[in-house]
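Write out the 3D structure for:
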Amino acid sequence: MHFTGFPEEGTTFLDEILINNSKEWLKSNKDRYENLIVTPNKAFIQEMGEHLQILVPSINAIPKINKSLFRIYKDARFHLADPIKTRIGIIFWQGDGHRMQSSSFYMHYDSQEVFIASGIRNFKAPLLSTYREYIQDKSKRIELHSILQNLQKKGYIIPQPHYKRYPLGFQIDQSHSYLSLYNAMFAYTSFKPTKIFYSSQIIDTCFTIYKDMFDLHQWVYELTLKSKN
């Protein structure tokens, strides 16, 4: 597979799902889905994965649906009326844990937005507990705070803290105690799809962003290693 850019017809296809959101419609457009979505996205995953090996030699970049390429079907238990996703999600993760609880390089896109992130976008209860224990160490809080500040200076966005009350073991007067209010740890940027997105140049664009975010990726990866101990 050779990646030459995401096809513009692919984002048009995603827009069509907005008014044709049914399994029947997707089945009748299976060939278009394969040609406009699956094939170019698998090619992107393969090539992007080769670039990311420069940063993380063991990165999981698996050009298969339900691996690095998210399923286009939503969870049927909660989305009977609109079972098809209108954006495409891609993930490259480090480690042998579940991809969503592993430090990762992530992207999703539709016709209006390309969203690129690194870290973990939601801590489940076990990892949240490990995170809070991990940042009891003042040096880890200082290190993370510095990483986040550097990313913000470069124009990347850090989500706002999720919680209002400090968890047990943290106080407002502790240095960088605000970090205990998070239920995730990631940075992101977003932009509208342009000619770059529809060309092979998007590989270099993504790699530059992921390289900028690498220190955060590694900090989060080291956190995940603690969750296994």
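The chain has one domain: 8-226.
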